[in-house]
Specification:
Blueprint: H1 7-17, H2 23-35, E1 39-43, H3 49-60, E2 64-68, H4 75-78, E3 80-82, H5 84-93, H6 99-106, E4 112-114, H7 116-121, E5 128-132, H8 139-151, E6 153-156, E7 160-163, E8 169-174, H9 182-187, E9 189-193, H10 198-208, H11 214-227, H12 238-246, H13 258-264, H14 272-277, H15 280-290
Parallel strand pairs: 1-8, 1-9, 2-5, 5-8
Antiparallel strand pairs: 3-4, 6-7
Helix pairs in contact: 1-2, 1-3, 10-11, 10-12, 11-15
Bound molecules: adenosine-5'-triphosphate and magnesium ion.
């Protein structure tokens, strides 16, 4: 990776990829690069956490390696495992050969299945390593990860110790479905990804939906800001706001077509309660207030 970029340069380059960051996020990314520390991004669903890692890899022209976390994720799925089927076939094919020689062969690189963490450590050019939704993994896995994030080396008993040649740029995301350990938090820089303010949300809509009218984008962004203040079971994120806006491209004003707005709500309100709570007159009031 090239020399560290400052905050302004990062913000500019992210915007060029279509990702519109706020000042604090650009600062966090600049610091992460300068200090060589992992960055933990916490926030609600659909606010752009995963996308940050993709955009970061793009601006640095480097590979994005993603580890999606889930309950029960273990070292074998995250780091490496041996290809047992191939090993068994090799053992069968070499029946009668010297056992030591066969053993050395089947525990060699050709029989190793590299998983995301090992892949990240073995890249020549520092990749962006995205550890997505770490809160879904178990606490034991978190402890194991912590070790890896402190020294970026892995010992495979049969092959020896592998140390990262270029330290990956690590982004961890969490939806805060469980409390992460203090140790993990201490190890990382931290940024809370919030819902965007209306002016930034309008810029996001314009960046992602080039066909949208500027006035409409501004109005939708204001509408979203008001809608998120309502008592909702599932507050819509940017992903939902993009779908909502995409289905209204072509309009110049939300007041122009109340039916279209009502139809488009299926992109925003994702529970039966929320649909019921936001009666047409509530929506009409929010639309009016956003004009
Ligand atoms: N600041 C932004 N600029 C441009 N696009 C954005 C921005 N924030 C979010 N998006 C878009 O919103 C969508 C959702 O983003 P993403 O999947 O990264 O959210 P997330 O926070 O990872 O959500 P989840 O918690 O559900 O995984 C993507 O299509 C992304 O491109
Ligand atoms: Mg995500």
């Amino acid at each position: 990776m090239t020399a560290p970029l400052d905050r302004e340069a990062i913000a500019e380059r992210l915007a060029a990829t279509g990702y519109v960051p706020d000042r604090d996020l650009a600062t966090a990314l600049a610091l992460m690069q300068r200090l060589g520390r992992p960055l933990l991004l916490e926030g609600e669903a659909g606010v752009g956490k995963t996308e940050i890692a993709k955009a970061l890899a793009e601006i640095h022209g480097t590979r994005l390696i993603r580890l999606q976390c889930w309950e029960g994720l273990d070292r074998a799925a995250a780091l490496y495992e041996w290809n047992y089927q191939r090993q068994l076939l090799a053992i069968k094919a070499r029946e009668g050969h010297d056992a030591k020689v066969v053993e050395a062969e089947i525990f060699s690189e050709a029989y190793l299945l590299e998983r995301p963490l090992l892949a990240a450590i073995r890249q020549e050019t520092a990749p962006v390593l995205l550890i997505d939704e770490i809160d879904r993994a178990d606490e034991e896995f978190e402890a194991f990860l912590l070790e890896l994030l402190s020294d970026f080396q892995v010992t495979i008993p049969e092959l020896g110790t592998i140390t990262a040649t270029s330290v990956p740029h690590v982004i961890l995301t969490s939806n805060a479905t469980r409390e992460l350990s203090d140790a993990l938090r201490r190890r990382c820089l931290y940024h809370y990804v919030d819902y965007p303010a209306p002016d930034r949300e309008a810029r996001i809509l314009l960046a992602r939906l080039p066909a949208i009218d500027t006035a409409l984008a501004t109005q939708i962004a204001r509408f979203l800001a008001k809608l998120r203040k309502e008592d909702l079971a599932k507050v819509p994120g940017v992903a939902e706001s993009l779908d909502f806006a995409a289905s209204l491209v072509g309009l110049a004003d939300l007041r122009e077509d109340p039916d279209a707005v009502r139809d488009a709500l299926i992109a925003l309100l994702k529970t039966r309660e929320d649909r019921a709570r936001l009666a047409p007159q509530v929506i009409a009031r929010l639309v009016e207030a956003s004009a």
